[in-house]
TrEMBL record:
<dbReference type="Pfam" id="PF09790">
    <property type="entry name" value="Hyccin"/>
</dbReference>
<comment type="similarity">
    <text>Belongs to the Hyccin family.</text>
</comment>
<dbReference type="InterPro" id="IPR018619">
    <property type="entry name" value="Hyccin"/>
</dbReference>
<dbReference type="GO" id="GO:0072659">
    <property type="term" value="P:protein localization to plasma membrane"/>
</dbReference>
<dbReference type="GO" id="GO:0005886">
    <property type="term" value="C:plasma membrane"/>
</dbReference>
<keyword id="KW-1003">Cell membrane</keyword>
<feature type="region of interest" description="Disordered">
    <location>
        <begin position="1"/>
        <end position="40"/>
    </location>
</feature>
<protein>
    <recommendedName>
        <fullName>Hyccin</fullName>
    </recommendedName>
</protein>
<dbReference type="GO" id="GO:0005829">
    <property type="term" value="C:cytosol"/>
</dbReference>
<keyword id="KW-0963">Cytoplasm</keyword>
<keyword id="KW-0472">Membrane</keyword>
<feature type="compositionally biased region" description="Low complexity">
    <location>
        <begin position="9"/>
        <end position="33"/>
    </location>
</feature>
<dbReference type="GO" id="GO:0046854">
    <property type="term" value="P:phosphatidylinositol phosphate biosynthetic process"/>
</dbReference>
Length: 212
């Protein structure tokens, strides 16, 4: 009995499908906003507008002037160059009730100086001569028995002092006083009177008169 031959059909072996693994998407996002000059400019303008608008709420008598300055492209510099705004803030600093710990204008100056914006810090420094002069004059003229509180003025002055010390890393600022007995580009030293002239008052008077 003949058995039919079973023809073996050679099927191709299934190829091992290797799935190529795709690298995961990079999660590190590069922040370009910090290096964008337009973004930095707009952030600075937003800070200045916010601080000047808060100042307009503290001085509502002429708030429209400060509000209009806040809408400019350079709010802090616009306030510095505005005589009306400077007169308004100067009047508030010079008022008899200013300088206390509850003075809202002193608190505004203190908080504004803590900002990292250089134009806002310059705005506070522009009122420093008036603030320090008012503070010193009131300390010497106030009665010691009823000495008022000037902690608002003192907080602003201490903030400026701390900033200066920090910027110099705690090193003292050395100031060299010029020796007026030595000639310079701006003056010629006076001749020192001799010892004999000091013993003779008439000769010393003649020496002084010749230099007047």
């Amino acid at each position: 009995m003949d058995f039919p031959h079973k023809h073996s059909t050679n099927f191709p072996s299934p190829s091992s499908s290797s799935t190529a693994r795709q690298p995961p998407p990079s999660t590190a996002t590069t922040s370009t906003t910090d290096n964008d000059p337009m973004h930095s400019w707009w952030e600075s303008v937003s800070k200045q507008r916010s601080r000047i608008l808060s100042l307009s709420y503290l001085l509502p008598s002429d708030g429209t002037t400060l509000s209009s300055l806040a809408d400019s492209d350079r709010p802090a510099l616009s306030l510095l160059s505005s005589p009306a705004a400077y007169s308004l803030i100067s009047s508030a600093l010079s008022s008899p009730t200013s300088g206390s710990g509850s003075d809202p204008l002193c608190q505004w100056l203190y908080e504004t100086f803590q900002s990292s914006d250089p134009h806002l810090r310059l705005l506070v420094l522009s009122f420093l001569p008036l603030l320090s002069g008012t503070y010193l004059s009131r300390i010497h003229t106030s009665d010691s028995s009823s000495f008022p509180s000037f902690s608002g003025f003192e907080a602003v002055l201490l903030a400026v002092y701390s900033s200066e010390v920090k910027s110099r890393f705690g090193k003292p600022l050395l100031v060299q006083i010029p020796d007026l007995s030595q000639p310079s580009l701006y003056h010629a030293p006076r001749n020192k009177p001799a010892d004999d002239d000091l013993d003779n008052p008439s000769a010393f008077y003649h020496l002084r008169s010749s230099h007047i």
